[in-house]
Design a protein that fits this description.
- The protein has a two-stranded antiparallel ribbon.
- The protein is mostly helical.
- Helix content is 72%, strand content 1%.
- Helix 3 runs antiparallel to helix 4 and helix 7 packs antiparallel against helix 9.
- It is globular and about 45 Å long.
- It has a single domain, classed as Farnesyl Diphosphate Synthase.
- It starts with a helix and ends with a helix.
Length: 288
């Protein structure tokens, strides 16, 4: 198994164990709500955002324990965003990670509430880090000027031909903000210096761009079996994408430039950052 896959698998297992412990501590929640939350939260996936938080902490301090609350909070917020993205009022998707989406399985009302529960629980969890700055940093990345704002840009952009600057703004918010803050929080909670936080945050910004470009490419070239969801959905909804705007070859070039900038941001680190260097390449070369 290659080092990136080993890293992602190890961090996914660590995150899932902690997530199950947090959910087991829920007291008084309706069983139907817990079932809907667990259905979506443990549906698989790369657990990339937790891995970035835990990996950044390891780069800085050699230990990821301090970043574990942030890792779990990030996955809760990411999962809530997927549940709500799939709703009929948003992207109206029936499949996610190879099985029916939350609203198809449990109904629209319970899916909305499952997302709400995950979002609010995420802030209870990250508060366990004891760092108020981390809580506010996550809130900004997930909120109106971050992920939620990006979803608004996405909805407003359907059926319109967005320019490159508009497309960058959309995805810097919708996808990039949570990826960037994952690395930033891991560094912050592990006692990183200001210079280390800046370098790792820049890394997060660039791999966020590469990740979205790869997603756009896979929506054109991937298979439903590999992705666990329909392909070609972006074009069907009239969404602007990097391949649609630039063509596949130019989109790939843009993605590789982002990867190069990401690895360059790690120049101040030694071999402890080698996994992050390899992860940047993995993000643009992945097939799902």
């Amino acid at each position: 198994m290659d080092p990136v896959t080993t890293f992602l698998n190890a961090k996914a297992e660590r995150t899932e164990n902690a997530l199950r412990a947090y959910l087991a501590a829920w007291v008084g929640a309706p069983s139907s709500l817990v079932e809907a939350v667990e259905y979506s939260l443990f549906a698989g996936g790369k657990r990339l955002r937790p891995a970035l938080a835990l990996g950044a902490a390891e780069i800085v301090s050699g230990d990821d324990e301090a970043a574990l609350p942030a890792a779990c909070a990030l996955e809760m917020i990411h999962t809530y965003s997927l549940i709500h993205d799939d709703l009929p009022a948003m992207d109206d998707d029936d499949m996610r990670r190879g099985r029916p989406t939350c609203h198809i399985r449990f109904g629209e009302a319970l899916a909305i509430l499952a997302g709400d529960a995950l979002l609010t629980m995420a802030f209870d969890v990250i508060a366990k880090s004891g760092c108020v700055v981390a809580v506010s940093t996550l809130a900004r990345a997930a909120g109106a000027a971050g992920m939620v704002g990006g979803q608004v840009y996405d909805l407003d952009g359907e059926g319109k031909a967005l320019g490159l600057a508009e497309l960058r703004r959309l995805h810097a918010c919708k996808t990039g903000a949570l990826i960037r803050v994952s690395v930033e929080l891991g560094a912050m909670l592990s006692g990183a210096s200001d210079a280390q936080i800046r370098a790792l945050t820049r890394y997060g910004e660039e791999i966020g761009l590469a990740f979205q470009i790869a997603d756009d490419i896979l929506n054109v070239t991937g298979t439903e079996a590999a992705l666990g969801k329909p392909v070609g959905s972006d074009e069907a909804r009239g969404k602007s994408t990097y391949p649609g705007l630039l063509g596949l070859d130019e989109a790939r070039r843009l993605g590789r430039e982002a990867v190069d900038r990401a690895t360059g941001a790690l120049d101040g680190f030694g071999p402890e950052a080698d996994t992050f260097r390899a992860l940047a390449a993995y993000i643009i070369d992945r097939d799902r």
